[in-house]
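Handoff note, outgoing to incoming analyst
You'll be picking up this chain. Sequence as last confirmed:
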Amino acid sequence: MTIEVIVKDNNVEHALRSLKKRMQREGLFREMKLRKHYEKPSLRKAREKEESIRRSRKLKRRNNDF
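Most recent structure output, in case you need it:
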């Protein structure tokens, strides 16, 4: 996976902000945080299950609002 940011008019600060936003959207920061330490497979499954439950509840709330 390659993320590419174009620097316009030597505006490096703007390009860095854009890069950070893209990395955040892609979930790279979260992935780096999770890979920092080893996670046992059983704990990983439990975490992923909790995340999916949280996502489904969030979707239900959004659908009920409309």
